[in-house]
Amino acid sequence: MTGTKSPRSFAQNHAKSSEQYLHGKDPELLYKVAITQIPMVGAVTARTLISYCGGVEAVFRAKKKELCKIPGVGDLVADYVINQDVLGHAEQELEFMEQHGIRPLFYLDKDYPARLKPFRDSPVMLYYRGNADLNAARTVGIVGTRTPTHYGTAFCEELVDGLKAYDATIISGLAFGIDVTAHRRCLENGMPTIAALGHGLDRIYPPQHRHTALRMTENGGLLAEYPSRTQPDREHFPMRNRIIAGLSDAVVVVESGISGGSIITAKIANGYNKDVFALPGRLHDKMSLGCNHLIKTNQANLLESAADLGYIMQWEERSKSRNIQPQLFVELSDQEQIIVNLLRERSELSIDALTFEAGITHSEMAALLLDLEFKGVIRSLPGKRYVPAR
Predict the structure, then answer these.
(1) Over the stretch 29-71, which tens digit does the pLDDT of each residue have?
(2) End-to-end CA distance of the chain
(3) What is the pTM of this model?
(4) Which domains, and CATH codes, for the chain?
(5) Backbone phi, then psi, for 366, in 5-degree steps?
């Protein structure tokens, strides 16, 4: 590094210049953006670096020998961190965000989407443009083929229409076919809808959906883990699918071949203990092979209407007048005991964290939590969080 600034002075100079336009905002934002741009550092490695160094800024102030002692960090990654070129790129990204009203969401921030927090592979940084609530009470991911039949398109529109009664926010990926059909139907119905993108927010892909995307920023949002100038490369879209799965209480597959992005999303959702649904189709119909296989192998619930989803997800209206009285002696099932033990250990958990920790699907968890409330064992807090009753 002869003839260059030392890592410490380089970081300090960038931090100082960034403060000129941050106007008192998060002083670590520069480093939060920068750490996601270090080559060979993904979500898991970034979390490891931050944990061992004691903070995101501390990563950039650490010495190489300290970095090399961290599990999963070798000489090459340590060199990339020490080089610090990413701080200059991060500063440019901050300027872009300021100019275009893009909101940064770091995984340690309180306003980071709660549904994504339990998963170790969730994005370290998200870039968000829009006004929809990323922590909406009910969310449904809708994915499917890029070349749907009339049967699939019609069902997708009917499903969105039916989900309006449940005040659901629809999550998809803005792709051709089922994705954009779901987004556009939401816009027609005045429903919030969010697209997870496989590129930076300085562009829209496919470009034919630009008008839809702009409308979504007024009643929905665009979400990406990639900074501006990131191209819509093929490898980004499978990564994008985990955001759709993680943000959704339930994922619906509307027509798919035996493999592809929709099937990947369904498998990720199952791994996250989310509820998965699939539209059944005719035997040997290539656009139904994937859905039929998911149902046949018990990887998805068969779905015929929004009412089916509402029933399984326990989203029907329940009486609010029923008094919940604590009982002196309560018999708990094995699953209920697991939930109670987790809450006693952690004091407070979200429904998404509970589903992940307990290995129980979202719909089963919702029913179990309601029963535990009725038994007076737990209490619910705003934001779908739960604590022991006593």
Answers:
(1) 999 999 999 999 999 999 999 999 999 999 999 999 999 999 9
(2) 59
(3) 0.81
(4) 7-100 (1.10.150.20), 129-312 (3.40.50.450), 334-388 (1.10.10.10)
(5) -60, -40
